[in-house]
What does this fold into?
Amino acid sequence: MSDMREHGAPQLTTTELAFETFQRVIAIFCLIAGIRYWALLMGISEGGAWRFDLLPVHWKIAAASLAVLWPVAGIGLWMLVSWGPVIWLVAAASEFVMHVGFPELYGSRWLLVLSHVLVALIYTIFRVGFYFSGRDDPPSE
It folds into this structure.
């Protein structure tokens, strides 16, 4: 990576560096969310109450899906590839629908929902900024 930037590739602007850092910070949180779901499903945390075989069907579907989606989103965001934010959006939208659309089944976790909205808003601000600066896509590694 550094060899490419030293030999003719454009240097990152402060905004591009901030965007990369933002994506990698979100990637860490995605990986933590994925590990949390796996720990719950395996019965490691919460005294085993969330073990997969003890969950109702709606939670089995949601938790198993999110246990896969969050780590994949984290890897994609960390690698700065285009599919990373897409997978993040699918996982975040899933939790948004769970907790806003069906609070009687999944509970209402407003802080989680708010954090997803905030991350989406910050991501959108970065992308709009890149669009108006004439760089539709920030350079990737």
Summary: Residues 14-132 form one domain. The mean pLDDT is 90. Helices lie at 2-6, 14-42, 57-78, 83-101, 103-106, 110-132. The chain has one domain: 14-132.
